[in-house]
Design goal:
Length: 322
């Protein structure tokens, strides 16, 4: 069976046609520069990357938001999105348009020189924060993200809590993201959230709203690491063998458009990382009739098993109960 058709064959077996529904989210990768270089990073971000969304791209994003009222959410990712010079313009502009804004934050970026007021800026704008914290203890975090990252992450979380982020009843949303250390599926999201809440509250006095579990994608940096260890095919087999049709209706690609730093459009962030463009290769400036995307077929590949294995995985966490 062709690897490029394997996922589509699974869809046919369960009688599901993967097409776009109404578009609600514009997710923008504003650049690949990051203060960390995590082992699982599917976009291979790091301190030496220079790719970044420019001024014209940022202006066009805000134009598209204004022109498409059904776009409820601007989802900013990277790299560390805060390091893009147009990050604050995007946040403030989207909020003035009445849109929700999510900042996908690695936490440690908030402690960098020049970023001292970023958390306060986000709070003043009412932006939501989705923060990476792949474990509630230092060992696993530092194996995945580097020495000293756990302590710096806790420092950033305490600063966010002090601003009201993550506190019970607070409108300042702070969600945390868990991803496995290696080639395993995430455990049930609700059970792990309860463990995170207990460990972080009792051990460190930290509060948050939700935990989102995300499966490691077998692409780019993580895929190469697995291949070096001779575990890539077994991990792909794990994902395929745990394909769960109940995850299909909630897949993020059905309601999201992903934009890269050059303004090219993709069905999702993972397709973007692989260069798997939409038909016609639309950009922010050409072929970007966002309202006409509903009903279109979605570009797929073997990596799509990562979103549909077990309880499922998306930018919003698990897709199926369990």
């Amino acid at each position: 069976m062709s690897e490029t058709r394997e996922f589509d064959d699974h869809l046919r077996r369960v009688g599901f046609e993967l097409r776009r529904g109404p578009l609600t989210t514009l997710q923008v990768n504003v650049g690949l520069r990051c203060d960390l270089a995590c082992h699982h990073c599917h976009v291979e971000a790091g301190p030496k990357r220079t790719e970044a969304l420019g001024e014209a791209g940022a202006a066009r994003i805000l134009e598209l938001l204004a022109a498409h009222p059904t776009l409820e959410l601007l989802d900013l990712t990277g790299g560390a999105p805060e390091l893009n010079p147009h990050f604050r313009r995007l946040v403030s502009g989207a909020r003035r348009l009445g849109r929700r804004v999510v900042d996908r934050c690695n936490l440690t970026v908030l402690l960098l020189q020049g970023q001292e007021d970023t958390a306060a800026f986000l709070a003043a704008e009412g932006a939501e924060i989705v923060a990476s914290l792949p474990c509630y203890g230092p060992e696993n975090v530092e194996r995945q993200r580097g020495r000293g990252v756990f302590a710096r992450s806790l420092e950033a979380l305490r600063a966010l809590n002090a601003l009201g982020y993550g506190l019970p009843g607070s409108p300042l949303v702070l969600d945390l993201v868990y991803n496995p250390l290696g080639d395993a599926l995430p455990p049930p999201q609700a059970e792990l959230e309860a463990r995170y809440r207990s460990e972080l509250r009792e051990g460190f006095g930290i509060e948050f709203h939700r935990l989102l579990t995300i499966t490691n994608m077998p692409i780019r940096r993580f895929a190469r690491a697995l291949a070096r260890e001779g575990r890539l095919e077994s991990y792909l087999g794990l994902l395929v063998n745990h394909f769960n049709p109940a995850t299909l209706p909630g897949l993020m690609c059905r309601s999201l458009v992903s934009v890269d730093h050059a303004g090219r459009l993709y069905d999702c962030d993972f397709n973007q990382a692989l260069g798997l463009a939409m038909p016609g290769a639309p950009t922010l400036w050409r072929g970007a009739e966002l309202g006409a995307l509903e009903g279109r077929a979605i570009a797929t590949g073997r990596h799509c098993f990562g979103c549909t294995a077990g309880h499922g995985s998306s930018c919003g966490g698990a897709l199926a109960p369990g």
